[in-house]
Amino acid sequence: MKTERMMTGRGLKGFAWVLTSLAMALAGTGCGDECVDDFDCRDKGGAPSGQHYTCVENTCELTSNSVPDAGTETDAGTSTDAGTTTDAGTTTDAGTTSDAGTSTDAGTTTDAGTTDAGTTTDAGTTTDAGTTSDAGTVTDAGTETDAGTGTDAGTDPCESATYDPKLGTLQLQTGFVAGESAPLPSSSGPVGVTPGPTYSLYTVVSEGYSGPHALYSLGTWPQVSLGAMPLFDVAAPADRSPSAVLFLSSFVETDGQRVLTGYTKSGAGFPGSVGVYDIATPASSTYVSAPSNFSAGVVPGAFLINGGGLDTVSAGLAIYALKTDASPFTALKVGTLPPETGGSGFTAVSTNGVAVLGYYSDDTFRNEGRAVGPAAISQALTSGTPFVVADGPALDVGSNFVAASGHGEGVSVVRGDYVPPDYNFAGTDVSRFAFNVTNDGATVTVGARQPVLVYVDQCTRVTGLTAIGSDLLVGVDDKRGTRLVRIQQSPQVR
C-alpha cells in the first residue's frame, strides 16, 4: 500500500542518529497514525535480532520471528528411523521365511530312527538372522544423532563475526583509506560539519516526537563530545507546545556562519519550517516556513532546499533556495523537478560546485539523482529563472539509494533497498561518482561508479554520510556502538 510517507524519497532510518543528507520519512499516514499496514513500519528501521515490526491498531509494534529449528523441521529420529522403517529382523527373518527343519524334515520322509536331519540341523533354530543382528536395535539414527540438538538455525552470525575497530565488517575498497574515527554520543541526531580548515560539528538532539528538539555542538573533529547546553531550539515558537508532534528532517547543513535544521508536521503538504542558527550572533537566528523540507545543501550565498515550498514561495515539490548573502534572507524557486517526481529526494554538493538534486520517481520506484553544474545554479540564483533538473546528467546508481553526500569533486551514495517481508533496509555498498566540470561550469560529466565500502553482511551498517572537507565522514553502527569514520581518497585518486 502506498502511503503519504512513500510519497517522499525513501530514507534510511531506525538508529538513534542519522547524518547529513540521510532522509527520514516526513510524517505519519496523514491523520496522526503511525502506520496502516506492515509496509509503513519499514521507517522504524532494523528491528532487534529475531524480531520484526508489525502494524497493530495503527502503531508499529515489535513481534518475534518464527525461527526454524533444524530439530523440528528435520529430525532424523522421527522422519527416518532405521529401526522402524527398515528392521532386518522383522522384514526378513531367515528363520521364519525358510526353516529347513519345517519345510523339509528328513526324519519324516526317511527316518533312520537314529539320525533325524530335522532335529540335528535346523537352519532356522541354529542361525536366525533376525535374532542375531537387528539393525533397528543396534543403530537407531534418530537416537544417536538429532540434527535439531546439534545445530539451531536461530544462532545470530553477527555474534561470531570479526569486527575491524573502525569499519566493523564493512570492507574498504581500493583507492580509499580509513582515517580518524570517533565514538558518537548515543543521543546524537543528524550531523553537520563546517567547511574547515577547522571542522566544527553540530547535531540535533530530540526527546521523541514531542520534543524538546535542540541544536548542540559536537566539538571539533576528531575530539567529538556533546555540548553541555543547547544552542538553539529547532522548533519555531508556534510549534513548541507539549502537544505538538514534529518530525525532524534528517539534515544539519552549515556554511560556517550559520547552521540549517528543519522539521515537518502531519497535514496537507506536510507543513514545516527550517531554522537558521547564526553561530556568531545567536540573537539573529530565525525560522522560515518550509513545507515538506526533505534534504538540503550549501552553495555559495545560499542554502538549497529540496521540498514543497519556502517562505512565501509555493510551487509544489521543487528545488528552492534561501539566499543568505543579504539581510533579510530571500527565498526563490531555482529548480524544476521532472514530471515523474512522486516525492522529494536527496541533495548533495561537491567541492567543485556540482549539486546532485534528487527525487523519488513514480516510474522506477527508486530515488534518482541528477548532476546540475555550478553555472546553472548561479544563473538561477541571479535571474530567478529555475533550471530544469532533468537537463543534468543522471547518476547511474544501478539500484535504490538512501543517502548522498559531497565527497571531494564528486558525491557518494549508500546503495541498497528495502527487503520484504519486513522491508528493513539492506545496504550493499557506499559508492562514489566523480564529476568533471568544463565549459565554465556549464557542463558536467559523471564518472563511473566506484565502490568505497562494501557490505559483506548486515552486521555493520552505514547510518549516514556527510562531507568533511574533501573527505567523507561515514556513520557506522554495529554491536561495538555508533561511531564516525573519516574516509580519505588515496593520493592518486584525488
From TrEMBL:
Organism superkingdom: Bacteria
Keywords annotated in UniProt: Signal
Low complexity bias (residue ranges): 69-156
Region described as Disordered: spans on this chain: 66-164
Cleaved signal peptide residues: 1-27
Protein name: Lipoprotein
Organism whose genome encodes this protein: Corallococcus carmarthensis
